[in-house]
Design goal:
Blueprint: E1 6-17, E2 20-31, E3 35-39, H1 46-53, E4 61-66, E5 69-70, H2 76-83, E6 86-89, H3 101-112, H4 118-131, H5 147-159, E7 165-169, H6 177-194, E8 197-201, H7 205-211, E9 214-219, E10 222-227, H8 229-232, H9 239-249
Helix pairs in contact: 3-5, 4-5, 6-7
Bound molecules: adenosine-5'-triphosphate and magnesium ion.
Keywords: ATP-binding, Nucleotide-binding, Transport
Protein name: ABC transporter ATP-binding protein
InterPro entries: AAA+_ATPase, ABC_transporter-like_ATP-bd, ABC_transporter-like_CS, P-loop_NTPase
């Protein structure tokens, strides 16, 4: 029996939008300090799944337990308390262009944590910029940063409230392959340093291989394959999983 602590437990989760059935019986266990990679074609419901996880959408049926709580039953106060323990940066979620890096990072901190001194705020921001390797950018504007640097600052901003769970929705989208490797390393370093549990949504199998302890492939509304990279990909039987692999590693 697996005795590791489960931080997320999903059971028989369904979600439709009108006639469109998106999630059709999703089951998932996410273990503490695990990095789980979620893969799947565009529109299969990956983002919907993590939106249900943080209570931005509600499932039609089934359960979504996060850190011991059924998300759909929480009142606003408890939902906000849970969200503070989850660092989520949505796909394309950007920095505020009119604010410096420091102000971008200060924003979630002063809004959610009361009674911090100016010095404590600065120390926390400096620690996290240091963790993502960009201490020198503190007074810069987002427009002065590269795409990869912006992603790093986004990760630092997400970490500022000390989340237990990190949700990365396509962290390497739009980056060159070398910068992707840097971001993947960062995801691994974040886990080491802050002992976070993570879900990484990606289309990039190199990212998946580098960051994931386990892969979960969303197909026809369910996780159809789950296991280590080696278990899921090289010998995939399902044509659609196989072609995902072939396109990433052979045809590209
Ligand atoms: N709030 C919503 N209202 C109606 N339909 C929605 C809503 N959110 C998502 N959908 C639909 O649900 C399906 C799954 O969307 P989702 O964003 O989860 O896809 P995804 O797997 O994250 O895709 P991608 O890889 O392109 O990001 C899509 O067809 C989308 O149009
Ligand atoms: Mg998505």
């Amino acid at each position: 029996m697996d005795t590791r602590e489960k931080v997320v437990i999903v059971r028989d989760l369904y979600k439709s939008f009108g006639d469109l059935d998106v999630l059709e019986g999703v089951d998932l266990d996410l273990f503490r300090e695990e990095n789980l990679v979620v893969l799947g074609r565009s529109g299969t419901g990956k983002s919907v799944l993590i939106k249900i996880m943080v209570g931005l959408l509600k499932q039609d049926s089934g359960s979504m337990h996060v850190l011991g709580k059924e998300v759909s039953t929480l009142n606003t106060k408890d939902l906000n308390a849970l969200r503070l323990k989850i660092g989520f940066s949505f796909q394309n979620s950007a920095l505020y262009d009119s604010m410096t890096v420091r102000e971008n990072m200060e924003f979630p901190l002063v809004r959610n944590v009361k009674n911090l001194t100016k010095k404590e705020v600065t120390m926390r921001i400096e620690e996290l910029l240091d963790a993502v390797g960009l201490p020198q950018t503190i007074n810069q504007m987002p427009s002065e940063l590269s795409g990869g640097q912006k992603k790093r600052i986004g990760v630092a901003r997400t970490l500022i409230l000390n989340p237990e769970i990190m949700l990365y929705d396509e962290p390497t989208a739009g980056l060159d392959p070398i910068t992707c490797v840097d971001i993947n390393n960062l995801i691994n370093e974040v886990r080491e340093r802050y002992k976070t549990t993570s879900i990484v949504i990606t289309h990039d199998l190199a990212c998946a291989k580098q960051t994931g302890d386990r892969m979960a492939v969303l197909l026809d509304g369910k996780f159809k394959a789950m296991g280590t990279f080696e278990e899921v990909f090289p010998r995939a039987v399902d044509e659609r999983i196989k072609s995902f692999y072939d396109y990433n590693f052979i045809n590209s």
